[in-house]
TrEMBL record:
It comes from the Eukaryota. This is PX domain-containing protein. InterPro entries: AH/BAR_dom_sf, PX_dom, PX_dom_sf, Vps5_C. It comes from Urochloa decumbens. Residues 22-141 form the PX domain. One of its GO terms (cellular component) is endosome. Pfam families: PX, Vps5.
Length: 400
């Protein structure tokens, strides 16, 4: 059984509340298998409803596949350093499960969550690439994806990669020390928290997976037990047959309830935990952007200070070269100031993102545990009621 779509608090949507109030509502629906063999993939209908003037109209329906969602994610990650880009579900899956109903529905929900988190973010929702993703026809989307998601998007990318490799080789040959790392009490505390959170979430998700598996195994065992008890009663006859048949029926009924609760645990408990494991990966990616920005800021600042000292020496020792060196210094100083601004911008954004992340995490994880406890309480009551209902008949049978 496949569970229904998650509640709005887990898949944030912009409500079309009061008439005329700005809203942006997106639904990822109708997964359909396309193609055959290794070329097969799942397509989705992405329905956008909005009254925002920058969009083409009040409603737009486009067809998208997973690689289109990847394109959106990667473009946002390139353009919005310092913002936690919502995570995508895993790309790879075991081949035999890749097109199972359960896997397809889990992925559809995760993609719906992904795009709605972007649409609810104060900065990401204004992105041009989001509008392209939500409005471009399939041909235009294919062109955008093929142009920007190649191994090298532009010739400059190849040159930059070559420079990076060359720099790393030089560092090894020359025995340079490792790049300096940002180290403040606040940032160290943040890093420790993120790594601890990742470990604890991963362990909780692992145990949730085991709970789902245990419910399914117990449900299967009850179904087989029910059949066996019915057959046992049939060969006994008379009163035993009727009582054992009822025990068997109760077992089969509880088997179905356990399977349903396993689905409920998967969709509303394990999957939200897994989603936050992925979200922590997004935070770590932003921390890497921050580390790179800090190194650039630090290296340029150090080089600026060094050049500034040399410039003062040239002013008195070699006036002919002073004008050229001064021009170079001004360029370096501008680059240094720009790198500092970039780093400080990422730090500011990260602080804002962390506050937003903590608030959303509290709501989502709280809801997941509420669903878990509610489902377990109902299941326990159903099991107790089922067995309690046949106790009088079993007692009568044992004393007759």
């Amino acid at each position: 059984m496949i569970s229904p779509e998650r509640s709005p608090s887990q898949s944030p949507r912009s409500p079309a509340a009061a008439a005329g109030a700005p809203f942006l509502s997106i639904s990822v629906t109708d997964p359909v298998k396309m193609g055959t063999g290794v070329q097969a993939y799942i397509s989705y209908r992405v329905i956008t409803k909005t009254n925002l003037p920058e969009f083409e109209g009040p409603e737009k329906i486009v067809i998208r596949r997973y690689s289109d969602f990847e394109w959106l994610h990667d473009r946002l990650a390139e353009r919005y350093k310092g913002i936690f880009i919502p995570p995508l579900p895993e790309k790879n899956a075991v081949e035999k499960f890749r097109f199972s109903k359960e896997f397809i529905e889990l992925r559809r929900q995760a993609l719906d969550m992904f795009v709605n988190r972007i649409a609810s973010h104060p900065e990401l929702k204004q992105s041009e690439v989001l509008r392209v993703f939500l409005q471009a026809d399939e041909e235009k989307m294919d062109r955008a994806r093929s142009y920007e998601t190649g191994i090298f998007k532009r010739p400059a990318d190849f040159l930059q990669m070559f420079k990076d490799v060359q720099s790393k080789v030089s560092d090894v040959v020359l025995g340079k020390e490792k790049p300096v790392e940002e180290s403040t009490p606040e940032y160290e505390k943040l890093k420790n928290y993120i790594f601890e959170l990742e470990n604890h979430l991963a362990e909780a998700q692992k145990q949730a997976y085991r709970l789902v598996k245990r419910h399914r195994e117990l449900g299967q065992s009850l179904a087989e037990f029910g059949k066996a008890i019915k057959l046992l009663g049939a060969c006994e006859g008379d009163m035993m047959e009727k009582v054992f048949s009822e025990v068997g029926s109760k077992s089969e009924m509880l088997s179905i309830k356990l399977q349903r609760e396993a689905d409920n645990l998967l969709f509303n408990f394990e999957e939200p935990l897994k989603d936050y494991v992925r979200a922590v990966q997004s935070i770590k990616a932003t921390m890497m952007d921050r580390a790179n920005a800090f190194r650039q800021h630090f290296d340029l600042d150090q080089e600026r200070k060094y050049k500034e000292l040399n410039l003062e020496k040239l002013k008195f020792m070699n006036p002919e070269k002073y004008a050229e060196a001064e021009s170079e210094f001004r360029e370096l100083k501008a680059d240094s100031e720009e790198a500092t601004k970039k780093f400080e911008h990422i730090v500011r954004l990260m602080n804002e993102e962390l506050a937003r992340f903590q608030e959303q995490k509290t709501a989502d994880i709280g809801l997941a545990f509420h669903e878990f406890a509610k489902g377990q309480a109902k299941l326990a009551k159903d099991i107790a009621d089922a067995w309690r209902s046949i106790l009088p008949k079993l007692e009568a049978c044992s004393t007759s």
